[in-house]
Amino acid sequence: MDTHINRNKELSIWEALIPVIALVAMLGYNVYIFGDDALSGSNQFILLVGAAVAAIVGFFNKVSFQKMMDEVAENIKSTAGAILILLMVGSLAGTWLVSGIIPSMIYYGLQVLSPGIFLPATLIICSVISIATGSSWTTSATVGIALIGIGGTLGFPLGMVAGAVISGAYFGDKLSPMSDTTNLAPAMAGTDLFTHIKYMSLTTVPTYCVTFIIFIILGLTVETTGVADSSALLADIQKAFHITPWLFLVPIVVIGLIVKKTEPLIALFIGTLLAAVFALIFQPEIVLMLSGEKTLNFANAYKGILNAITVESVIPTDNENLADLFKSGGMQKMLGTIWLILCAMVFGGIMDAIGALARISQTLLSMAKSTFGLFASTVGSCLALNITASDQYLAIVVPGKMFKKAYHDKGLAPENLSRTLEDSGTVTSVLIPWNTCGAYQSGTLGVDTFDYLPYAFFNILSPFMTLIFAAFNIKIRQLTTAIKE
After folding, report:
1. 351 and 449 share a domain?
2. What is the C-alpha to C-alpha distance for residues 244 and 228, in angstroms, rounded to an integer?
3. For 322-344, what is the mean pLDDT?
4. Which pLDDT score, from 0 to 100, does residue 485 have?
5. How far apart are CA 451 and CA 459, in angstroms?
6. Of 51, 269, 319, 455, whose CB has the highest number of CB atoms within 10 Å?
């Protein structure tokens, strides 16, 4: 809410767009050349090249190098929490594999979730967890990882499963009163939290229903390549791990902590430590194997657990369908995602410093001649900020500040703005590979952003739904005369 918006009157809209056009063109070519390996490092460097282009534009418009670096520093500082959460997610994934938590989820999930109901069930499960926790990130890091594993063994494309996970996670994130973005949007627009949630549900619920129907159809029509008889998979999981319902205590504790408004970073840290204890209790042979030693004592147990938390862990199995599921990268796996976020923050910081973000939003605002035009400009501004600033919070804060007066001047209640900010700013962030949300979800679920993007139906449809409501003047609340005066 305290974010300062840098304005530069000397910067034209065409100059503001030069870095954006250059970045999109370079990233497009880079993905064409490297394919799925683009996120291994080349995309990160391209973001820095885009930042250099933005800096050159800034120099021509009398913006000092120090100012640019100050904004970059502020941007990187704002991602400190996200980076620490990413590291904790890596450690959590490692210990939850070694302790048998994720294999147990897959084991029991395979017996309950048949291919016909798997996709809609995934959507509902993630929706419930996300509403309870208020966090799409926590949802993906816990049940999301397990559902990816179950979907993979059933033979579903991982992008499709990730799309269902993300759709459910962001539905819950939008409607939960504990969500940070759900609190931020009404604060920026000038309305209260529960008015915002009630008004936002008018577009969110129909979008969710359409998404649910699509996943039902996909679940009934998509031909999976998984084995029809899962008995062999279940036997191999039991062969590698000691499977027991007691292992579910750890995710229950983590979700309970989040529901009780414990900071996600603390909850994930506690989940990691509990899983480490459960690994020693239920999977001592695996802990010993990871230590590389022959006898289990305190030092070797310590070594095995720390290896699970920090570096790649591979649990041997003769079943090819389980090979990828029995592997975790630990904290080390998240370093590439963190690298991507840092480079994106450099680009976003320089774009903010030279006034490009403000110029792009101002131009979109000036094009809003009608009520529908105002809504469309807000959506366009949120999308542009998600692409250029690489951060969903800026995609809410900047348009929220710049469009607030315009909504008031047109006689529109502030909940119109807060709803549009969420319908376009919150949910589309995960569709941008170099956005903090896109990078996080891709790194956590192990699925490339462009693989799950076509299946993140809730996130894709949300901006269109809010525009349909605006175009047909459906539930567009007006300011009362008393409020205007």
Report:
1. yes
2. 24
3. 84
4. 38
5. 14
6. 455
pLDDT value for 236: 87
**CA-closest candidate to residue 360, choices 57, 40, 26, 42:** 57
18/124 same-domain check:
no
pLDDT in tens, 214-255: 999 999 888 776 554 567 778 888 999 999 999 999 989 988
Domain assignment of residue 395, yes or no: yes
Q: Give every CB contact of residue 122 below 8 A, 6+ residues apart in sequence.
A: 113, 147, 151, 161, 164, 165, 168, 215
Kindly state the percentage of the chain with pLDDT values over 90.
43
Question: Which domain does 150 fall in, by range?
Answer: 81-333
Instruction: State both tokens at 190.
Output: 């000038």
Q: What is the pLDDT of residues 1-50, one digit of tens each?
A: 455 567 777 788 899 999 989 988 898 888 788 876 776 788 889 989 99
Q: For residue 327, what is the enclosing H or E element?
A: strand 327-328
Structural domains in the chain (count): 2
What is the distance between the alpha carbons of residues 312 and 315, in angstroms, rounded to a whole number? 10
Q: What's the rounded Cα separation, in Å, for the pair 124 and 108?
A: 17
Residue whose C-alpha is closest to residue 437's, from 447, 426, 448, 446: 426
Q: Using alpha carbons, select from 19, 47, 22 the residue that is nearest to residue 438.
A: 47
Domain boundary among 317, 333, 349: 333
| φ, ψ of residue 273 in degrees (nearest 5) | -65, -45
Query: The tokens 């031909």 sit on which residue?
Result: 223
Interatomic CA distance for residues 485 and 483, integer angstroms: 5
Does the CA dihedral 296-299-301-304 come out positive or negative? Answer: negative
Q: Go through 204-235 and write b for each residue having 16 or more CB atoms within 10 A of its CB, e for each that does not.
A: beebbeebbebbeebbeeeebebeeebeebbe
Say which residues have a Cβ less than 8 Å from residue 99's Cβ, sequence separation at least 6: 247, 250, 275, 276, 278, 279, 282, 283
On the question of pLDDT at 397 being above 60, the answer is yes
pTM assigned to the model: 0.79
Sign of CA dihedral 161, 165, 166, 168: positive
Do residues 158 and 176 touch, judged by C-beta distance below 8 A? Answer: no
pLDDT at 4: 59
Q: Does 2 map to a domain? A: no
Degrees to nearest 5, angle at CA 17 with 69 and 345: 35
